[in-house]
Amino acid sequence: MNIIVQKYGGSSLSTPDKFLALAREIAKRSERDDRLVLVVSAMGDTTNNLVALVRELSSNPPAREMDMLLASGEQVSIALMAIALHKCGIDAISFTGSQVGIKTSPAHTRARVTGVDTSKVGAELDKGRVVIVAGFQGVTESNDVTTLGRGGSDISAVALAVALGAQRLEKFTDRDGVFTADPRIHPGAHRVPHLSYEEMLEMSHSGAKILHPRSVFFAMKYGLPILVRKSLGHGAGTLIDKGERRMEEPLLSGVTHDASVAKVSVYKVPDKPGMAYKILKVLTDQEIPVDMIVQSTTESAVNDISFTISKSDLNRAVELLQAASGDVEGIEVRASPNVALVSLVGLGIRTNAGIITRMFQALSEKQINIQMIATTDVRISCIIDEASVEEAVRTIAQTFDL
């Protein structure tokens, strides 16, 4: 019998009625031959509410204790899901990440999966039970609870699916698949029936909230197909896999946006070898991810370096850079929090230079200024003013009929 892993997000689990509705659908599915493993997130806004509670106590809580607290949200969900399934006549059992042996690195609040022990899950599946596993969490070799970072339930689901040799992962959301743009911004957006791992990875990195980028990379590494579908719906969804090779016509997948980024600029950096390394190492040593790095050289033997980071890391990053400025005389650090990232994604970008000029022309006609540009084989990304992001998404989508 095939093993199918299903992932349910918090929006699908926000009320008891939604638990029961899902349980009824899962009960219909379990009557077939498939063996089901469910990976669930915390209910609705539970994680945000827990973070808000912490902020009332401390601006710098111990990371270990944050993991202990945040992991509790998924524990509520797995128990409620099991109770709902039992009410529908389905034998189900719930487990935390540590109970099923999801082993992780010791990096609290941003741990990485190092291994999965499938023996307990396999034994319960052999008994005919639906197994429910808490996403987002694991345990270190020393039995400390860890979390995988926001959106980490996707990573849990892929890790379990790979370890169990599942036929595929089914990710359930509030829309029937991946769309060419956010329908809330561009009502004309349409569903994309098929994406390659590379396209989905670029969309995830550039703001699409469908799948965590690490989960897409994990699935790509092991060739695990992912079907993104609507909860309580019967649409076709979007299949993500190795992708088929199309003809030479440009193939564009969609427009994404991310308003959670900020820009940091470091001015008057001496034009000497190793200076960029010295500046960025200050941040990477503190595990602050850096993206979209642009360096410009002036005639006065100094450089300006700009890069993007998460808005949530901005204040800390600026403090670290200013504290380190004494080691590099004369540099100035400026923060730009009111920016956003907008990206055009598609396999056709790598072979059609005209796409870039059409995109930039469309933005210029709307008087949208581009502050930074970055490209890959599958993506063109721009940093723009945050106030213009919705207009930029609509403009690009309409320009390319997305």
The largest β sheet comes out as:
8 strands, mixed
The structural class is alpha/beta
- Anisotropy-based shape: globular
Distance separating the two termini:
39 Å
Global mean pLDDT: 88
Name the beta content range.
25-35%
The CATH architecture of the domain at 3-173 comes to 3-Layer(aba) Sandwich
Rg computed from alpha carbons, rounded to a whole number of angstroms = 23 Å
State the low-pLDDT regions, or none: none
CATH topology of the domain at 3-173: Carbamate kinase
Helix and strand topology:
Elements: E1 3-8, H1 16-30, E2 35-40, H2 46-57, H3 63-87, E3 92-95, E4 102-104, E5 113-116, H4 119-126, E6 130-134, E7 137-139, E8 145-147, H5 152-164, E9 168-173, E10 178-179, E11 191-192, E12 194-196, H6 197-205, H7 213-222, E13 226-230, E14 238-241, E15 254-258, E16 261-270, H8 275-284, E17 291-297, E18 302-310, H9 314-324, E19 332-336, E20 339-345, H10 354-365, E21 372-375, E22 379-385, H11 389-399
Parallel strand pairs: 1-2, 1-9, 2-6, 3-6, 9-13, 12-14
Antiparallel strand pairs: 4-5, 7-8, 10-11, 13-14, 15-20, 16-18, 16-19, 17-18, 20-22, 21-22
Helix pairs in contact: 1-3, 2-3, 5-7, 6-7, 10-11
